[in-house]
Write a structure and sequence with these properties.
This protein is of the alpha/beta class. It has helices at residues 7-15, 64-74, 86-94, 106-114, 129-134, 137-140, 165-168, 193-204, 213-226, 237-242, 253-262, 294-304, 307-317, 327-333, 344-349, 358-373; strands at 53-57, 78-82, 151-164, 187-189, 230-233, 248-252, 269-272, 280-286. It binds pentane-1,5-diamine (N2P). GO terms for molecular function: polyamine binding.
Amino acid sequence: MSPEVPPSTRRALLRAGAGGLLGAAVAGCGFMPAKTPDAKDLAPPRARVDGDLVYFNWADYVDPSVFKGFEKEYGVKVVQSNFDSMEGMVAKLNAGNRYDVIFPSAKWAQRLARGGRLRRIDHSQITRAKDVFGAYPYFADPWYDPGSAHTVPFTAYKTGIGWRRDRLGDLSGSWRDLWNDAARGKVFLLDDRDEVLGMGALELGLDVSTGDSGDLDRITRLLAGLRPRLRGFSSDSYNNLLNGNALMTQAWSGDMAAMLNQAKDPSVFGFEAPKEGTPINSDCYAIPWNAPHPGTAMLFIDYMLRPENVKKNIEYIGYPMPVAGSEKVYAALVEPFPECLVTEADLKADLFFRNGSRTAEDARDTAWTHVKAG
Ligand code: N2P
Protein backbone atom coordinates (compact mmCIF):
# COMPACT_ATOMS: atom_id res chain seq x y z
CA MET A 1 0.00 0.00 0.00
CA SER A 2 1.10 3.56 -0.42
CA PRO A 3 -0.21 6.88 0.80
CA GLU A 4 -1.42 9.64 -1.49
CA VAL A 5 1.82 11.20 -2.67
CA PRO A 6 2.91 13.60 -5.42
CA PRO A 7 2.71 12.08 -8.92
CA SER A 8 6.40 11.27 -9.50
CA THR A 9 6.85 9.44 -6.20
CA ARG A 10 3.48 7.87 -6.73
CA ARG A 11 4.51 6.42 -10.07
CA ALA A 12 7.65 5.01 -8.48
CA LEU A 13 5.54 3.36 -5.80
CA LEU A 14 3.18 1.94 -8.40
CA ARG A 15 6.16 0.50 -10.26
CA ALA A 16 7.27 -1.07 -6.99
CA GLY A 17 3.85 -2.69 -6.83
CA ALA A 18 2.26 -0.37 -4.30
CA GLY A 19 -0.73 1.85 -4.96
CA GLY A 20 -3.42 4.14 -3.64
CA LEU A 21 -6.70 3.12 -2.14
CA LEU A 22 -10.30 3.22 -3.25
CA GLY A 23 -13.71 3.65 -1.65
CA ALA A 24 -16.70 1.34 -2.03
CA ALA A 25 -20.43 1.08 -1.33
CA VAL A 26 -21.93 -0.13 1.94
CA ALA A 27 -23.80 -3.45 2.12
CA GLY A 28 -26.47 -4.76 4.50
CA CYS A 29 -25.85 -6.26 7.90
CA GLY A 30 -27.14 -9.34 9.68
CA PHE A 31 -25.70 -8.67 13.12
CA MET A 32 -27.98 -8.03 16.08
CA PRO A 33 -26.46 -7.30 19.48
CA ALA A 34 -27.69 -9.37 22.40
CA LYS A 35 -28.53 -6.11 24.19
CA THR A 36 -28.30 -2.52 23.06
CA PRO A 37 -25.45 -0.85 24.88
CA ASP A 38 -26.07 2.43 26.65
CA ALA A 39 -25.20 5.40 24.39
CA LYS A 40 -22.98 7.01 27.02
CA ASP A 41 -20.78 3.91 27.06
CA LEU A 42 -20.03 4.50 23.40
CA ALA A 43 -18.54 7.99 23.87
CA PRO A 44 -14.95 8.19 22.64
CA PRO A 45 -12.46 7.39 25.40
CA ARG A 46 -9.65 9.76 26.31
CA ALA A 47 -6.12 8.37 25.90
CA ARG A 48 -4.89 7.85 29.48
CA VAL A 49 -3.73 5.00 31.67
CA ASP A 50 -6.83 3.47 33.29
CA GLY A 51 -5.54 -0.06 33.91
CA ASP A 52 -3.75 -2.99 32.27
CA LEU A 53 -4.39 -3.68 28.59
CA VAL A 54 -6.72 -6.62 27.98
CA TYR A 55 -5.70 -7.56 24.45
CA PHE A 56 -7.58 -9.97 22.16
CA ASN A 57 -6.13 -10.79 18.74
CA TRP A 58 -4.85 -13.50 16.40
CA ALA A 59 -1.67 -15.15 17.72
CA ASP A 60 1.66 -13.67 16.56
CA TYR A 61 0.05 -10.51 15.28
CA VAL A 62 2.14 -8.01 17.32
CA ASP A 63 5.89 -8.13 17.91
CA PRO A 64 6.48 -9.17 21.57
CA SER A 65 9.18 -6.49 21.91
CA VAL A 66 6.55 -3.84 21.10
CA PHE A 67 4.38 -5.13 23.96
CA LYS A 68 7.40 -4.95 26.27
CA GLY A 69 8.10 -1.34 25.29
CA PHE A 70 4.45 -0.42 25.92
CA GLU A 71 4.42 -2.11 29.34
CA LYS A 72 7.61 -0.36 30.37
CA GLU A 73 6.63 3.09 29.17
CA TYR A 74 3.15 3.11 30.73
CA GLY A 75 3.71 0.82 33.73
CA VAL A 76 0.90 -1.56 32.73
CA LYS A 77 0.70 -5.25 31.80
CA VAL A 78 -0.55 -6.56 28.47
CA VAL A 79 -2.95 -9.39 29.30
CA GLN A 80 -3.19 -11.39 26.11
CA SER A 81 -5.64 -13.84 24.69
CA ASN A 82 -6.03 -15.05 21.13
CA PHE A 83 -8.77 -16.12 18.74
CA ASP A 84 -8.44 -18.05 15.48
CA SER A 85 -11.51 -16.82 13.61
CA MET A 86 -13.82 -13.82 13.56
CA GLU A 87 -16.71 -16.06 14.59
CA GLY A 88 -14.66 -17.17 17.60
CA MET A 89 -13.86 -13.58 18.52
CA VAL A 90 -17.50 -12.48 18.42
CA ALA A 91 -18.63 -15.57 20.35
CA LYS A 92 -16.37 -14.50 23.24
CA LEU A 93 -17.76 -10.96 23.15
CA ASN A 94 -21.30 -12.31 23.09
CA ALA A 95 -20.47 -14.58 26.03
CA GLY A 96 -19.69 -11.46 28.07
CA ASN A 97 -15.87 -11.51 28.01
CA ARG A 98 -14.48 -7.99 28.24
CA TYR A 99 -11.50 -6.75 26.26
CA ASP A 100 -9.86 -3.36 25.76
CA VAL A 101 -8.72 -3.83 22.19
CA ILE A 102 -9.90 -6.26 19.49
CA PHE A 103 -8.99 -6.65 15.82
CA PRO A 104 -11.98 -7.26 13.55
CA SER A 105 -11.63 -7.53 9.77
CA ALA A 106 -13.57 -5.04 7.64
CA LYS A 107 -16.98 -6.74 7.49
CA TRP A 108 -16.84 -7.70 11.17
CA ALA A 109 -15.94 -4.13 12.12
CA GLN A 110 -19.02 -3.00 10.18
CA ARG A 111 -21.24 -5.50 12.02
CA LEU A 112 -19.90 -4.59 15.43
CA ALA A 113 -20.15 -0.85 14.84
CA ARG A 114 -23.68 -1.12 13.45
CA GLY A 115 -24.65 -3.32 16.37
CA GLY A 116 -23.55 -0.62 18.83
CA ARG A 117 -20.66 -2.76 20.07
CA LEU A 118 -17.76 -0.34 19.54
CA ARG A 119 -16.65 2.84 21.30
CA ARG A 120 -16.15 5.79 18.99
CA ILE A 121 -12.51 6.74 18.41
CA ASP A 122 -11.65 10.43 18.55
CA HIS A 123 -8.87 10.92 16.02
CA SER A 124 -7.64 14.01 17.87
CA GLN A 125 -6.62 11.68 20.73
CA ILE A 126 -4.21 9.84 18.42
CA THR A 127 -0.88 11.61 17.97
CA ARG A 128 -0.15 10.19 14.53
CA ALA A 129 -3.68 10.07 13.13
CA LYS A 130 -2.61 12.10 10.11
CA ASP A 131 0.03 9.50 9.18
CA VAL A 132 -2.85 7.08 8.74
CA PHE A 133 -5.93 9.05 7.70
CA GLY A 134 -4.07 11.90 5.98
CA ALA A 135 -1.75 9.64 4.04
CA TYR A 136 -4.27 6.91 3.18
CA PRO A 137 -7.53 8.57 2.13
CA TYR A 138 -9.13 5.14 1.68
CA PHE A 139 -9.03 4.67 5.43
CA ALA A 140 -10.29 8.17 6.20
CA ASP A 141 -13.72 7.02 5.03
CA PRO A 142 -13.82 3.25 4.50
CA TRP A 143 -17.02 1.45 3.41
CA TYR A 144 -17.06 -0.63 6.61
CA ASP A 145 -16.91 2.31 9.05
CA PRO A 146 -17.79 5.75 7.64
CA GLY A 147 -15.21 8.29 8.75
CA SER A 148 -13.34 5.47 10.58
CA ALA A 149 -15.49 6.62 13.49
CA HIS A 150 -14.95 3.38 15.47
CA THR A 151 -11.79 1.88 14.01
CA VAL A 152 -8.16 2.54 13.09
CA PRO A 153 -6.79 0.35 10.30
CA PHE A 154 -4.14 -2.09 11.49
CA THR A 155 -3.12 -4.19 8.45
CA ALA A 156 -4.12 -5.05 4.88
CA TYR A 157 -3.74 -8.31 3.01
CA LYS A 158 -4.98 -10.52 0.22
CA THR A 159 -5.61 -14.24 0.02
CA GLY A 160 -3.64 -16.51 -2.28
CA ILE A 161 -1.79 -19.81 -2.40
CA GLY A 162 1.47 -20.57 -0.62
CA TRP A 163 3.41 -23.63 -1.72
CA ARG A 164 6.63 -25.62 -1.51
CA ARG A 165 8.41 -24.73 -4.71
CA ASP A 166 11.11 -27.30 -3.92
CA ARG A 167 8.49 -30.07 -4.04
CA LEU A 168 6.01 -28.87 -6.65
CA GLY A 169 7.96 -26.54 -8.94
CA ASP A 170 6.06 -23.65 -10.50
CA LEU A 171 2.29 -23.38 -10.31
CA SER A 172 -0.08 -22.01 -12.94
CA GLY A 173 -1.30 -18.88 -11.15
CA SER A 174 -4.90 -20.12 -10.75
CA TRP A 175 -7.05 -21.25 -7.81
CA ARG A 176 -7.22 -24.48 -9.84
CA ASP A 177 -3.70 -25.18 -8.53
CA LEU A 178 -5.33 -26.40 -5.31
CA TRP A 179 -6.45 -29.44 -7.35
CA ASN A 180 -2.82 -30.17 -8.39
CA ASP A 181 -2.29 -33.98 -8.34
CA ALA A 182 1.28 -33.70 -7.05
CA ALA A 183 0.02 -31.99 -3.88
CA ARG A 184 -2.91 -34.35 -3.28
CA GLY A 185 -3.40 -35.14 0.42
CA LYS A 186 -1.06 -32.31 1.44
CA VAL A 187 -3.29 -29.36 0.71
CA PHE A 188 -4.86 -27.12 3.37
CA LEU A 189 -7.58 -24.54 3.04
CA LEU A 190 -7.96 -21.71 5.53
CA ASP A 191 -10.34 -22.63 8.35
CA ASP A 192 -12.50 -19.68 7.39
CA ARG A 193 -16.01 -19.75 5.95
CA ASP A 194 -15.75 -16.67 3.78
CA GLU A 195 -12.28 -17.49 2.45
CA VAL A 196 -13.21 -21.02 1.40
CA LEU A 197 -16.58 -20.12 -0.15
CA GLY A 198 -14.94 -17.03 -1.70
CA MET A 199 -12.25 -19.14 -3.33
CA GLY A 200 -14.92 -21.41 -4.84
CA ALA A 201 -16.85 -18.35 -6.01
CA LEU A 202 -13.79 -16.86 -7.72
CA GLU A 203 -13.04 -20.16 -9.45
CA LEU A 204 -16.62 -20.15 -10.79
CA GLY A 205 -16.70 -16.44 -11.64
CA LEU A 206 -19.24 -15.61 -8.88
CA ASP A 207 -19.41 -12.84 -6.26
CA VAL A 208 -17.09 -13.65 -3.32
CA SER A 209 -19.86 -12.79 -0.84
CA THR A 210 -22.72 -14.52 -2.63
CA GLY A 211 -25.60 -15.72 -0.47
CA ASP A 212 -27.65 -16.93 -3.43
CA SER A 213 -28.69 -20.55 -2.94
CA GLY A 214 -28.03 -21.49 -6.59
CA ASP A 215 -24.52 -20.00 -6.40
CA LEU A 216 -23.86 -21.72 -3.08
CA ASP A 217 -24.96 -25.08 -4.52
CA ARG A 218 -22.49 -24.69 -7.36
CA ILE A 219 -19.71 -23.72 -4.93
CA THR A 220 -20.50 -26.63 -2.63
CA ARG A 221 -20.41 -29.08 -5.56
CA LEU A 222 -17.09 -27.71 -6.77
CA LEU A 223 -15.55 -27.95 -3.30
CA ALA A 224 -16.91 -31.48 -2.79
CA GLY A 225 -14.47 -32.49 -5.54
CA LEU A 226 -11.58 -30.81 -3.71
CA ARG A 227 -12.46 -32.17 -0.25
CA PRO A 228 -10.88 -35.68 -0.73
CA ARG A 229 -7.64 -34.01 -1.83
CA LEU A 230 -7.33 -31.97 1.37
CA ARG A 231 -5.27 -32.71 4.43
CA GLY A 232 -7.55 -30.33 6.30
CA PHE A 233 -8.67 -26.82 7.18
CA SER A 234 -6.20 -24.66 9.09
CA SER A 235 -5.36 -20.98 9.31
CA ASP A 236 -1.86 -21.72 10.62
CA SER A 237 -0.56 -21.60 7.05
CA TYR A 238 3.04 -20.78 7.64
CA ASN A 239 3.67 -23.46 10.23
CA ASN A 240 1.98 -26.04 8.01
CA LEU A 241 4.31 -25.18 5.13
CA LEU A 242 7.42 -24.87 7.30
CA ASN A 243 6.93 -28.22 9.05
CA GLY A 244 6.03 -30.03 5.82
CA ASN A 245 2.43 -30.93 6.72
CA ALA A 246 1.39 -28.84 3.73
CA LEU A 247 2.84 -28.76 0.24
CA MET A 248 0.25 -26.18 -0.65
CA THR A 249 -2.13 -24.01 1.31
CA GLN A 250 -4.61 -21.23 0.89
CA ALA A 251 -2.97 -18.39 2.82
CA TRP A 252 -3.10 -14.75 3.81
CA SER A 253 -0.34 -12.77 2.12
CA GLY A 254 1.04 -11.43 5.39
CA ASP A 255 1.48 -14.89 6.87
CA MET A 256 3.50 -15.89 3.83
CA ALA A 257 5.71 -12.82 4.27
CA ALA A 258 6.17 -13.70 7.96
CA MET A 259 7.20 -17.21 6.90
CA LEU A 260 10.10 -15.72 4.94
CA ASN A 261 11.59 -14.60 8.27
CA GLN A 262 11.52 -18.16 9.57
CA ALA A 263 12.69 -19.93 6.44
CA LYS A 264 16.37 -20.76 6.13
CA ASP A 265 16.06 -20.66 2.34
CA PRO A 266 13.13 -18.56 1.08
CA SER A 267 13.47 -19.89 -2.47
CA VAL A 268 11.98 -23.17 -1.18
CA PHE A 269 8.61 -21.40 -0.96
CA GLY A 270 6.28 -19.56 -3.31
CA PHE A 271 3.21 -17.35 -2.93
CA GLU A 272 0.83 -16.61 -5.79
CA ALA A 273 -2.17 -14.30 -6.12
CA PRO A 274 -4.46 -16.29 -8.44
CA LYS A 275 -5.57 -14.67 -11.68
CA GLU A 276 -9.30 -15.23 -11.07
CA GLY A 277 -8.98 -12.69 -8.25
CA THR A 278 -7.87 -12.57 -4.62
CA PRO A 279 -10.03 -11.57 -1.67
CA ILE A 280 -8.73 -8.38 -0.10
CA ASN A 281 -9.15 -7.38 3.52
CA SER A 282 -8.09 -5.12 6.32
CA ASP A 283 -7.98 -5.84 10.05
CA CYS A 284 -8.48 -2.88 12.35
CA TYR A 285 -8.08 -1.80 15.94
CA ALA A 286 -11.39 -1.41 17.77
CA ILE A 287 -12.46 -0.86 21.39
CA PRO A 288 -15.53 -2.85 22.56
CA TRP A 289 -18.41 -1.01 24.20
CA ASN A 290 -17.70 -2.73 27.52
CA ALA A 291 -13.88 -2.41 27.54
CA PRO A 292 -12.68 -2.20 31.15
CA HIS A 293 -9.70 0.05 30.26
CA PRO A 294 -10.53 1.98 27.11
CA GLY A 295 -8.08 4.79 27.94
CA THR A 296 -5.16 2.35 27.95
CA ALA A 297 -6.48 0.92 24.66
CA MET A 298 -6.26 4.40 23.11
CA LEU A 299 -2.66 4.75 24.36
CA PHE A 300 -1.84 1.35 22.88
CA ILE A 301 -3.18 2.30 19.43
CA ASP A 302 -1.18 5.52 19.65
CA TYR A 303 1.96 3.63 20.66
CA MET A 304 1.57 1.10 17.83
CA LEU A 305 1.57 3.93 15.28
CA ARG A 306 5.00 5.28 16.25
CA PRO A 307 7.35 4.78 13.29
CA GLU A 308 9.84 2.58 15.17
CA ASN A 309 7.02 0.31 16.37
CA VAL A 310 5.42 0.15 12.93
CA LYS A 311 8.75 -0.95 11.47
CA LYS A 312 9.37 -3.61 14.12
CA ASN A 313 5.85 -4.90 13.81
CA ILE A 314 5.76 -5.06 10.02
CA GLU A 315 8.98 -7.04 10.03
CA TYR A 316 7.66 -9.43 12.68
CA ILE A 317 4.09 -10.05 11.49
CA GLY A 318 4.66 -9.80 7.72
CA TYR A 319 1.61 -7.59 7.12
CA PRO A 320 1.78 -4.03 5.76
CA MET A 321 0.38 -1.35 8.07
CA PRO A 322 -1.16 1.76 6.49
CA VAL A 323 1.08 4.31 8.20
CA ALA A 324 3.00 6.95 6.22
CA GLY A 325 6.71 6.21 6.05
CA SER A 326 6.46 2.43 6.46
CA GLU A 327 6.05 1.57 2.76
CA LYS A 328 9.74 0.95 2.06
CA VAL A 329 10.06 -1.35 5.07
CA TYR A 330 7.32 -3.57 3.66
CA ALA A 331 8.58 -3.49 0.08
CA ALA A 332 12.02 -4.62 1.30
CA LEU A 333 10.53 -7.41 3.42
CA VAL A 334 8.49 -8.94 0.59
CA GLU A 335 11.07 -8.62 -2.14
CA PRO A 336 11.10 -12.42 -2.61
CA PHE A 337 7.24 -12.51 -2.64
CA PRO A 338 6.17 -9.36 -4.48
CA GLU A 339 2.60 -10.65 -4.70
CA CYS A 340 2.28 -9.92 -0.96
CA LEU A 341 2.08 -6.21 -1.79
CA VAL A 342 -1.45 -4.87 -1.63
CA THR A 343 -1.70 -2.87 -4.84
CA GLU A 344 -4.10 -0.29 -6.13
CA ALA A 345 -5.38 -2.86 -8.63
CA ASP A 346 -6.21 -5.26 -5.77
CA LEU A 347 -8.22 -2.58 -4.01
CA LYS A 348 -9.94 -1.49 -7.23
CA ALA A 349 -11.07 -5.06 -7.74
CA ASP A 350 -12.92 -4.54 -4.43
CA LEU A 351 -12.98 -8.18 -3.43
CA PHE A 352 -13.70 -7.41 0.22
CA PHE A 353 -16.09 -9.84 1.89
CA ARG A 354 -19.38 -7.99 2.55
CA ASN A 355 -22.13 -8.48 5.08
CA GLY A 356 -25.23 -10.05 3.57
CA SER A 357 -28.83 -10.26 4.79
CA ARG A 358 -29.59 -12.64 7.66
CA THR A 359 -30.88 -15.17 5.09
CA ALA A 360 -27.75 -14.89 2.97
CA GLU A 361 -25.43 -15.27 5.98
CA ASP A 362 -27.41 -18.30 7.15
CA ALA A 363 -27.19 -19.87 3.68
CA ARG A 364 -23.42 -19.36 3.77
CA ASP A 365 -23.21 -21.01 7.20
CA THR A 366 -25.07 -24.03 5.85
CA ALA A 367 -22.86 -24.26 2.77
CA TRP A 368 -19.73 -24.05 4.96
CA THR A 369 -21.00 -26.85 7.18
CA HIS A 370 -21.46 -29.03 4.09
CA VAL A 371 -18.02 -28.17 2.70
CA LYS A 372 -16.28 -28.96 5.97
CA ALA A 373 -18.16 -32.20 6.53
CA GLY A 374 -17.23 -33.27 2.98
C1 N2P B 1 -1.75 -13.67 12.00
C2 N2P B 1 -3.08 -13.99 11.40
C3 N2P B 1 -3.63 -12.86 10.64
C4 N2P B 1 -5.04 -12.94 10.37
N1 N2P B 1 -0.92 -14.79 12.07
C5 N2P B 1 -5.48 -12.25 9.17
N2 N2P B 1 -6.79 -11.81 9.29
